[in-house]
């Protein structure tokens, strides 16, 4: 290993091996006849803080899971992770109910999973046991790189936390809650990153003590960063920001000559599919991927632009690249915006919209919706509809059916969180189409709308069950408007403010 940081890398390797051996991850055995061991390799990475400073050196022993055979070395591999929307909901609730929010990290999390299958692995380079060179490692616990490692870790954590009195959230299997007469605690798990929400420090301290007794944990105290997103406590609640990530994107694509602009999408430009040779297709896909992470995290204001531009990833043209540059220019101007949640109001509401056919080359409409809680957006999307709608009303109704599903999911999420007042009132969905509202409440079928009967029945049932109620809103006040079309500078500002986007200070 030729590096000026060799001492740090060696320390990282030794720490990893100490964790593996102390966890009894494997036993040395003779390879059974007919069995074939998989290999392993060391993976090294420097981990940085959000301000760019070096945090630590990480070394991982990773099994070559790509050599595993399904049905022999593994069977099921699925493991859930918390939805990013769930994290935002919990931070909004933390703002409203003044909860404490702490963070913990599970060290070498995947080593805790128990293996059900027989898996043999070659001894790791640099740690071949003297006198036992011909032996192989029979894995007893899961190891990074194994196909089933995430599943085994999640099952292990599940059994440990549920045995301590926590209960699953039925809407998100990575959220656990425990409420007693003295305290309430909610845990949100994203692989090995953990947020702990508590009504007081007693509950958080007891939870930390229990987790530390069962796993090797790193206590990160009050939450600072989750999934690369900055989290800051302010006087009225919590705020999220990805300014450091946006800086990286701008630096990565600085060769585009990015100029600041006031809107993410120019509605006067009509983009069409490229019939010629693709222009830097791989770089275009990389740009879309980079923008998507910002969009999904804290920047709902660029959703429509990213959704629209992602449709041309297969064969981008110069015009599509110019549109990418515009999104980057908008981010450059608004790099300091963060998503703010406050302690008021305790109201969950949604906004829905749809744009009908907007180009001769594309006959499918775009659905857009956003939900707000505690003054900030918690869930949003801009998506191309999967079917061709025959009218504006139909495209709006298709969007309404989709947003109804999200409303039902959010309601189910809150049902299992005892902080939320019960029973949960109907969620107000704001829509700017009076014909769609009329259709939603009507039992009449006619020749123009009978083909949408399934969606109609679903939406009507949500209304009858008091899961949603539909309220009219003018287009200029509809927060879902920027998810379906490009807007003017003033409307971009007003809708962004309505979604809780403010300067992160």
UniProtKB/TrEMBL annotation:
Name of the protein described by the UniProt record: Reverse transcriptase Ty1/copia-type domain-containing protein
PANTHER family in the cross-refs: GAG-POL-RELATED RETROTRANSPOSON, INTEGRASE CATALYTIC DOMAIN-CONTAINING PROTEIN
CDD domains attached to this UniProt entry: RNase_HI_RT_Ty1
Domain Reverse transcriptase Ty1/copia-type as annotated: residue spans: 23-265
Taxonomy, superkingdom: Eukaryota
